[in-house]
């Protein structure tokens, strides 16, 4: 009983598709709404991202969760580092996931968490659109930030919608061009690389921002009635005016969303409170609050990221990997 | 670079002694005082210990930390479970530790955390006495609770002091007798198993409580001038009168100690605040606040437990294990 399965990124890729990830995240959002997904507010360890000490350029977040529908508990420890890690050509995200049997207390799996983090982040964007754009299947979207999470968002959204047009903006036009090349198979219509940020938002149904920008670059006047905005960066990517005038604000996790990301600054100023929020994504997914956007509404939907998604995905990965005989095993408690 | 060493309890035992653990914890306490030990407040996941759901009898705490003196970051995920785990004859504590290189972000080790948890908990009691009982080397102590942590406390205290007498009380006298048998080698003088809780506290220099009691069984009138009380249970083991009349209260971690353990109730009632506290153990260890107890003083010292201790110990274990070629290796990021 006390042996732990060890799984690499390669093992995970063998048993997981983006379609799986979207479905797993959707179920876990429903669990949030129904009260069977238990997800304490994450706790951070600043390694020098903002703090003066330690002298590194990163942070780590500890994200424990229990997910009722798969009866699994676990923790993801994940963060981002620049500095020497970037110089060495390693990806920004570093992460591990541990799973335990919540009844017996033994650790059932240890696996890479970076791949799952990237895929579930994209899935959270897709599910944000699933419960807001309920009136059509063919959509036009804007992506700000042609990096990893722009890609996984596109891949995940394509599992639920037909993307008739994707307008992408990146600080570096070459990144946009590379994105266009890589994402072709997920987009039915055209991918348009724009040079002016304002142009990306024109005539789209949804705007996804996945940048590391510390500027409020997305302007209120670009966002027209009927549009959904999904900001996924660590900082505030849209201006105060939009946040304060959006018809509905939805979040994945109230505690976390008021303390980090796009709403942090206005929440700290007392201008956004729990009462300002229309619903959690989970409440809408569970049918407790109405889904859908009206043609005269503008919706801000913030899936800041919850460990519960990672734990649910990791649990499915573990069970499939055991069935397939993948990975390795180690007995920690002997 | 991206390979992770895996270590079992057996591997850890091969490279670690209680003497090491006491020294490592001491250095890490000094780091707390000097500001080089970074230890965010732990975040809990209730699996049904207090919450109505999920339906299990346990909890897990996520404890990330960075320790400057060994330049290491990591997380311990640790908790306790009764119920089916207890029925299966498994120990209360279940735990894993992950270590990372704080500059490069790669995960360097995954190891069992239960053994380290038990040993460091005992060491925290020993260091609490080291900085309060500074005027003698031969001491008499009382232990309430003849379980694992009563044992590791005794073992650790014997690294710093000669124990001239140890008075032990347990709800079950047979547990006390077994403790006496097991702990002989660590106690120079006699181990006295008492049947009446009050008798344990008679004529001792220090009282260590390591019980799962939810009663405030340790009475103010039992605690005489010159005595140090170190409560390590999850609940309040001593009465309000003692806490409110102790001459000095020391803690290992202000944030945690005001929200759990012995001070929780009075802190929530506003009767104990950060201002009530004399010092952190770290401040005393670093020489920023005076050590020692006066003959007319009674000190309450609360080492509730910090992940930094575990991360520091695990780092030393990792480095020694690599040198000795112990454990196994797995590449998670491939």
TrEMBL record, chains A, B:
Cellular component terms (Gene Ontology): cytoplasm
Family matches, as SUPFAM superfamilies: NAD(P)-binding Rossmann-fold domains (SSF51735)
Cross-referenced Gene3D superfamilies: NAD(P)-binding Rossmann-like Domain, ornithine cyclodeaminase, domain 1
Membrane-spanning ranges: none
Annotated PANTHER family: KETIMINE REDUCTASE MU-CRYSTALLIN
Protein name according to UniProt: Alanine dehydrogenase
Organism expressing this protein natively: Anaeromicrobium sediminis
Classification of source organism: Bacteria, Bacillati, Bacillota, Clostridia, Peptostreptococcales
């Amino acid at each position: 009983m006390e042996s732990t399965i060890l799984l690499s990124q390669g093992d995970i890729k063998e048993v997981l598709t983006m379609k799986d990830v979207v479905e797993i995240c959707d179920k876990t959002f429903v669990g949030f709404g129904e009260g069977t997904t238990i997800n304490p507010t994450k706790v951070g360890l600043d390694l020098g991202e903002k703090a003066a000490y330690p002298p590194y350029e990163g942070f780590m977040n500890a994200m424990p969760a229990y997910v009722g529908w798969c009866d699994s508990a676990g923790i993801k420890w994940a963060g981002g580092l620049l500095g020497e890690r970037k110089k060495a050509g390693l990806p920004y995200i570093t992460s591990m996931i541990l799973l335990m049997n919540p009844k017996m207390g033994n650790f059932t799996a240890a696996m890479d968490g970076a791949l799952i983090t990237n895929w579930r982040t994209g899935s959270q964007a897709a599910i944000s659109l699933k419960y807001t754009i309920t009136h059509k299947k063919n959509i036009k979207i804007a992506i700000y930030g042609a990096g990893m999470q722009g890609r996984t968002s596109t891949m995940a959204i394509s599992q639920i919608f037909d993307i008739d047009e994707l307008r992408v903006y990146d600080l570096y036009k070459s990144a946009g061009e590379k994105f266009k090349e890589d994402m072709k198979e997920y987009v039915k219509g055209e991918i348009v690389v724009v040079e002016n940020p304002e142009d990306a938002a024109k005539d789209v149904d949804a705007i996804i921002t996945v940048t590391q920008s510390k500027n409020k670059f997305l302007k209120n006047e670009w966002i027209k009635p009927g549009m959904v905005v999904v900001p996924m960066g660590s900082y505030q990517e849209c201006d105060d005016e939009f946040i304060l005038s959006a018809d509905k604000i939805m979040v994945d996790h109230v505690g976390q969303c008021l303390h980090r990301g796009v709403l942090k600054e206005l929440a700290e100023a007392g201008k956004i409170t729990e009462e300002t929020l229309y619903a959690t994504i989970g409440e809408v997914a569970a049918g407790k609050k109405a889904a859908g956007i009206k043609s005269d509404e503008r919706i801000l939907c913030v899936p800041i990221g919850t460990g519960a998604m990672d734990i649910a995905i990791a649990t499915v990965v573990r069970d499939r990997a055991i069935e397939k005989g993948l990975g390795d095993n180690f007995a920690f408690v002997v």
